[in-house]
Recover the amino acids of this structure.
């Protein structure tokens, strides 16, 4: 089984590999990938071992094969439909983000409790009332939901999603959710990310360093 740290690095590998492919390259070494991402060649080789693609001595890895293997291991080779709850500024931005398609994710419907937003077009869909959520999920066999509501509403929304049959939740709300063990949860905490950024900036200013070291 591929480790979570390796899975987190896969998108960065994929971005570089696609760039190399566009530049007309066919092979890439672990040393080159390591240098670009601030890793060691040994770590890169360990990560690539999980893809099943073997490198060749003095040549490296075939870029096309690595791209295909990483996409498959991430589950991005098949489009996955998802619903989004919360038609606020963040929800609208995410639902309009076309880059999700390259990751195999499609926001097919947006739901909100504000009746003034019902029927409003957002991206390739419209805003639906929350009382239509359960039927929509059942009719379209949706397994994934994205939450972008305020913290005080997040748990109620999560409970409604679980009741509707959702199996995985991507939570952007600043709230720790209580979910059944059979529901997958991934939280993206914007406040935490900004706190790390701020701490790195303060460290930079305090020590007078010339650059920040990124973590992977």
């Amino acid at each position: 089984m591929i480790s979570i740290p390796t899975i987190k690095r896969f998108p960065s590998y994929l971005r570089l590999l696609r760039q190399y492919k566009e530049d007309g390259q066919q092979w890439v070494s672990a040393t080159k990938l390591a240098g670009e991402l601030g890793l060691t060649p040994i770590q890169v080789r360990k990560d690539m071992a999980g893809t099943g693609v073997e490198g060749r001595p003095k040549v490296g890895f075939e870029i096309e094969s690595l791209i295909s293997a990483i996409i498959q291991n991430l589950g991005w080779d098949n489009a996955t439909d998802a619903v989004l709850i919360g038609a606020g500024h963040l929800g609208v931005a995410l639902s309009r983000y076309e880059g999700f398609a390259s990751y195999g994710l499609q926001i097919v419907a947006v739901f909100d409790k504000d009746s003034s937003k019902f029927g409003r077009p957002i991206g390739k869909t419209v805003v639906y009332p929350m009382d239509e959520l359960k039927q929509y999920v059942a009719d379209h066999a949706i397994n994934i939901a994205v939450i972008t509501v305020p913290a005080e509403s997040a748990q109620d929304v999560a409970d409604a999603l679980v009741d509707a049959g959702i199996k995985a939740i991507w939570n952007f709300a600043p709230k720790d959710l209580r979910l059944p063990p059979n529901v997958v949860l991934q939280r993206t905490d914007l406040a935490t990310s900004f706190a790390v950024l701020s701490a790195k900036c303060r460290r930079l200013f305090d020590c007078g360093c010339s650059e920040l070291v990124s973590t992977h």
User: Anything to note?
Assistant: The helical segments are 4-22, 30-37, 41-49, 63-74, 89-96, 133-140, 151-164, 190-207. The domain at 80-192 is CATH 3.40.50.720 (Rossmann fold).
